[in-house]
Specification:
It is built from three helices and three strands, in the order αβαβαβ. By secondary structure, it is α/β, with parallel strands linked by helices. The protein has a domain of about 50 residues. The radius of gyration is 13 Å and the shape is globular. Pfam families: AAA_30.
Length: about 80
């Protein structure tokens, strides 16, 4: 997950702990005062992120459409189920 570009990719098969790692990254970021944006391909998947505690959640389409209205500085952006 280390990168100098600012982009990290976490890939793995079902049950390998991706959601667990993302939950830890979310908690670490919010504890440091960083805002976290959750993105998902569908409204159902976005609802799953909300149920996991994410407060700032968008579908990918909604995020791209509204990105000029979303303050992006000092944000961690998590895209769940990116391969869908």
């Amino acid at each position: 997950m280390l990168s100098t570009s600012g982009v990290r990719v976490l890939r793995g098969r079902a049950g390998t702990g991706k959601s667990y790692v993302l939950a830890k990254a979310y908690k670490l970021a919010t504890n440091r005062g960083q805002k976290v944006i959750g993105l998902a391909p569908t409204h159902k998947a976005a609802s799953e992120l909300k149920s996991k505690g994410y407060t700032d959640v968008y579908t990918v389409k909604g995020f791209l459409y509204n990105r000029k209205k979303i303050f992006m500085q000092n944000r961690l952006i998590v895209v769940d189920e990116a391969g869908m």
